[in-house]
Amino acid sequence: MMAADETEEMRSLELSGQVGFNSLPHQVVRKLVAQGFCFNILCVGETGIGKSTLINTLFNTTFETEEADHYEQQVKLHSQTYELQEHTVKLKLTIVHTAGFGDQINKEESCNPILNYIEAQFEKYLEEELKIKRSLFNYDDTRIHVCLYFIAPTGHTLKSLDLVTMKKLDSKVNIIPVIAKADIMSKSDLGNLKKKIMNELQSYGVQLYQFPTEDEEVGEINSSLNARLPFAVVGSTEDVKIGNRMVKARSYPWGSVQVENEEHCDFVHLREMLLRVNMDDLREQTHFRHYELYRRCKLEEMGFKDTDPDSQSFSLQEMYEAKRKEFLKELQHREESMRQMFVNKVKETEAELKEKEKELHERFEQLKRMHQEEKRNLEEKRRELEEEMNAFNRRKVAAETLMGQALQGCSHQPLKKEKDKKNFFSLPSACSLTSGRNLN
Ligand code: GTP
Ligand code: MG
């Protein structure tokens, strides 16, 4: 077999008749049409700036959206998916709105939820790509294809929040800036504002989506569209009768602003560029530029690389081994620090226990002393009681003796019996012997 670099220059051959492979583009188109397309739009802009109205105007329908209030603690993103069909082409359209953007007093964190959302969609796609069983063909792609950035028509130029947000988003998503509610500005003010915005974006190094100009078919129209950035747009879903035609317009006491009139605003240019000319390019740029960058950074972060420092060919096996070793080392390190932490904790607990033991010992000694004191007191009391009991017993014996003698005397002198009995019971010693207080 011939090696690739030895291959002769390719020769062109004429076919003698039609063979049929010229139908390949039609086969591709048929398959794609049957499968349907998806397109995901992110609308970033202050509350009430006209995001929902513009999207409704762009797609000539009414998407159900709720009005946001101005009291959100932080920026929240709401996504809603719709299935649309235009002739035979089916489109799965996802619209993501930012609620509460620019409403907080401290706006430092305003763009983080937006960044996180965009990256989370890339992460989901990367996870699918890295699966062993992938289903990328019918993958539900939620990556943001375009970010319509709504600029308020009220300032002299961009607000710092707009600049910072666009700068942070420009490497993650295709940004198309639009000046919202352009009907409230005069033509000359609008022209000046456009120039100032573009100068500021340029000096701040913000990369906007550039409509591709290399393509012969759309190069010319895209060049003119690039020059019109940022698009000054007006949105309205109201049909107004102008002459004998019904057109989308905003009516004022002094006249009407027609949404699709090029003299009145850039709405038709935005629709032309977004839906009719560059929709596929926006999808491609998302995949090949923004997602590719995210994927590369993520894989590098995880330790993957295409070539080693000596530019030898990349080996997945070697890289896996290196990563495994690194992981084991990290694991050992963590184990060691956990063991050290455990030892320290044990030491601390030991010291605490010793302290407690000492306290308990002191308490025990104190109680022991109190107990001995108590015991001594009780002994003293017992001794006193015993002495009292002895005295009582002695008196009792004496009383009994006296009573015996008295009874003997009575048997000899019966007449004196009653008198002696009285005398005996009136003896003070007898009274005191029977009193409860002395017994106790
Ligand atoms: P939230 O989703 O609540 O943040 O608002 P939003 O940005 O989606 O704005 P929405 O489209 O709900 O419009 C808010 C108000 O602005 C409505 O009263 C619209 O009629 C009005 N509005 C929308 N577009 C335009 C416009 O181009 N010009 C003018 N003058 N008013 C507009
Ligand atoms: Mg809205």
UniProtKB/TrEMBL annotation:
PROSITE patterns reported in the protein's UniProt record: G_SEPTIN
GO CC term (a single one): cytoskeleton
Subcellular location(s) of the protein: Cytoplasm, Cytoskeleton
Biased composition (Polar residues): 429-440
Domain of life of the source: Eukaryota
Keyword check for Coiled coil: yes
Coiled-coil zones: 339-402
GO molecular function, one term: GTP binding
InterPro entries the UniProt entry points to: G_SEPTIN_dom (IPR030379), P-loop_NTPase (IPR027417), Septin (IPR016491)
Occurrences of domain Septin-type G (ranges): 35-301
Keywords on record: Coiled coil, Cytoplasm, Cytoskeleton, GTP-binding, Nucleotide-binding
Residue span of region Disordered: 409-440
Pfam families noted in UniProt: Septin
Keyword Electron transport attributed: no
Similarity comment text for this entry: Belongs to the TRAFAC class TrmE-Era-EngA-EngB-Septin-like GTPase superfamily. Septin GTPase family.
Descriptive protein name: Septin
